[in-house]
């Protein structure tokens, strides 16, 4: 993980399930709420960063769950989790999680070989899903989520699925816990984050290129959204995640006063 510090867990269109091994994960929301050391973490969709504190080393398994995957595995829509950080045994109702899945953290901890650990996780996931009836979002909701994530306007998506904007907002919010507009913002941010990550790994980060390619009006718009959703500007995130990148200068690197609680140098890994 690099030097000890705080890693930003960035918003995305996927729910996150983390199963740490050896040591529990120290995680909270960026402002410090809901902080605890947990042996499993399930988080719903969120429009704000999480903070993962580490001593320079972490091991475990992390899964990204689509909204449909959350229904299949946990038996609940993403909205049921809200903006929560929970352990598997804290899911409500208690019967929502398969027994094998609830005991997976301790089983992982007692298993030394990584091949056996991964096989254990796979068996638990398949077993949990096999015990549930097929439960997918309404086809209109699934269609709407796909269109919203691609950048179509809320009005156009509502017209395509044959709903009013109000009904679309109600249905999407009930499925995700986010409104269509917020989900769109998170989806565009995720695309921008992935592109910036790719460019940074190639040693040529360009905020102008990211803004132009991901639908932001300009660099200033991109930076405002990053400050809002990631808790820092993209230039600051680059310095934290890729301190070795020497791009002179990163376009749009005027951080401004984002008011965020800036973490120490973070690991060179992708945040989700």
TrEMBL record:
The protein's name: AraC family transcriptional regulator
InterPro entries per UniProt: AraC_XylS_family_regulators, Homeodomain-like_sf, HTH_AraC
Residues covered by region (Disordered): 247-272
Domain HTH araC/xylS-type as annotated: residue spans: 138-240
Keyword set, alphabetical order: DNA-binding, Transcription, Transcription regulation
Basic and acidic residues composition-biased segments: 259-272
Recorded GO MF terms: DNA-binding transcription factor activity; sequence-specific DNA binding
Entry-linked PANTHER family: BLL1074 PROTEIN (PTHR46796:SF15), HTH-TYPE TRANSCRIPTIONAL ACTIVATOR RHAS-RELATED (PTHR46796)
């Amino acid at each position: 993980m690099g030097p000890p510090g705080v890693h930003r867990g960035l918003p995305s269109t996927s729910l996150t399930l983390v199963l740490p091994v050896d040591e529990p994960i120290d995680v909270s929301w960026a402002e410090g709420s809901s902080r605890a050391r947990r042996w499993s973490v399930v988080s719903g969709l969120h429009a704000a960063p999480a903070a993962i504190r580490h001593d320079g080393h972490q091991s475990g398994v992390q899964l990204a769950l689509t909204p449909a995957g959350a229904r299949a595995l946990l038996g609940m829509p993403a909205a049921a989790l809200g903006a929560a950080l929970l352990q598997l045994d804290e899911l409500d109702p208690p019967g929502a999680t398969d027994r094998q899945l609830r005991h997976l953290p301790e089983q992982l901890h007692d298993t030394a070989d990584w091949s056996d650990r991964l096989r254990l996780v796979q068996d638990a996931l398949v077993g949990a899903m096999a015990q549930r009836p097929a439960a997918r979002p309404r086809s209109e909701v699934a269609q709407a989520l796909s269109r919203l994530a691609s950048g179509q306007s809320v009005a156009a998506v509502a017209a395509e699925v044959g709903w009013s904007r109000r009904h679309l907002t109600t249905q999407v919010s009930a499925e995700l816990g986010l409104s269509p507009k917020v989900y769109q913002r998170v989806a565009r941010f995720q695309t921008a984050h992935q592109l910036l990550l790719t460019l940074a790994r190639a040693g040529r980060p360009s905020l102008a290129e990211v803004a132009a390619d991901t639908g932001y009006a300009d660099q200033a718009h991109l930076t405002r959204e990053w400050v809002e959703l990631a808790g820092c500007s993209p230039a600051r995130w680059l310095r934290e995640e890729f301190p070795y990148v020497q791009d002179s200068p990163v376009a749009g690197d005027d951080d401004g006063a984002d008011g965020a609680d800036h973490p120490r140098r973070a690991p060179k890994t992708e945040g989700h």
